[in-house]
Amino acid sequence: MFDPRRTLLSEASTSPDARWWTISLVRAVRGLLTWTPAEPLVWPSHAINPVPRLDSNPDARLEAFLAATNELTRRGLDAESLVRYGMPNEIAAVLGGMLLLRDLGIDQPELARRRGVDLEAWRAALPPLELNIGDDGVSAHRLGEIAMGYARTYVPAIFSWIASAPLTSLVMLSPPEASQLAHPHPGCNGDTKVRERYAWLVDRFSTSSIRDWLTTSLQYEFRWQDGTEPPPCPLECMIEREVDKNELNAELARRSAHSIGGDLDPQSILASEVDSHARNLVRQGRPHEAAALFEFAVLKRPYDAGIRNNLGFCLMPENPRAALKELETAAHMGYDHPAVNVYNRACCYLALEQPRDAMAISEEYWAANTLPDADGAILWQWPPDPGWALTEVGEPNGALAELMVCLASNMGWQEDQLRWEERSRLFNTARDQNLAQVCI
Can you tell me whether residue 393 is helix, strand or coil? Predict the structure, then answer.
């Protein structure tokens, strides 16, 4: 599968320049605009401590952003329009999500501080909004009501700021004066076709799976491959990524069959950022709070397999049966980390005292796919003794094999135990050999 992160990680220089692929430049611009400390900032892996330098140095982030946008413009892409018309949803999601979670008291304030965002100044600049947050916790339904208020009041004002603020203010999320947001900027919405074409360009160069593209981006791609739509940028840039026509047709057909729309409403924009912060809560060992956020995100983005999987993950300690349902839905949607999904489902079956089902889905998965998952994962330790605890693993396939060895040993299934021990050994050997080849 196409992965723009790996292209960026392999660049020959730490600062964006003429040697970088267009894919990496767009990915860098998008990453710098939308980065929050809740997620790692992807940057060339060979550099000496590049991520801490960018994370802790706002001037370095700004310098990298300007270098990338200048190089994109030199190549014939209007970088300013790319940001204003192709990425407003992402910028609004980051800022709106920070404000929303701050007001809910869910997220920790150091995230905004480390990002360098003055949330108090933003609240002073934005129109007044009464949230009426109760003391009985935040359910997905209540979060949806609050997000609706945000979507109606804050998101249009943020879009107006995106249309008019200097690019340097956008990357630094610098708050404007209240008077600047009093009246919508005439360019805050822009021509629909212009916005759709720039969004297509962003999807094409910086989004891994076409399942995550906007439907309008898929339609533009189809027409371009059909020869009826001009490219949104010079042809030499377009050919950096080849989109499979059969895969494109299948995704368009799937969305047509399920009546999946093309554009994102303001609440869906917030849902994408809520998902990011919820994953950070999981890392902090706060799955109950994260589950409420994921439930809201699922309501607004029901066809997002990643959010479904994450919701199921958070439900596992308290309701493994409900968790299993969400995890199975994510698998049917094509969740792109199948080893993680199978491990989670196996743990659900074990919690429901159905060990043979746990073994069966693991056998089925292993027979079909044992490709290493380079991203690693956060998983629940099994068995949960004395309680459910999180653990971070470098390769979820290996974790699944070890889980099956443990299960077979505990159940006295000797043949299964021997088979999985051999699988674990062979897999670990193959993984170590691959890592050695990469190092060489």
Answer: strand
Higher pLDDT, 226 or 115: 226
- CA-closest candidate to residue 346, choices 287, 254, 408: 408
Q: Is the pLDDT of residue 260 over 70?
A: no
Structure confidence at residue 238 (pLDDT): 94
Q: Do you find a cis peptide bond into 166, omega within 30 degrees of 0?
A: no
181 vs 160: CA distance, rounded Å: 7
Please tell me the distance from the alpha carbon of residue 265 to that of residue 253, in angstroms, as a whole number: 22
Cα of first residue to Cα of last residue in the chain, in angstroms, is 24
Q: How many domains does the chain have?
A: 2
Distance CA 229, CA 236 (A): 16
- pLDDT over 50 at 436, yes or no: no
Mean pLDDT across 15-22: 90
- The distance of Cα 99 from the centroid of its chain, to the nearest Å, equals 19
Tell me the C-alpha distance between 4 and 1, whole Å. Answer: 10
pLDDT score at 437: 34
Domain span holding position 376: 304-439
C-beta separation of 87 from 190 below 8 A:
no
Question: Is residue 424 included in any domain, yes or no?
Answer: yes
For residues 328 and 367, state if they share a domain. yes
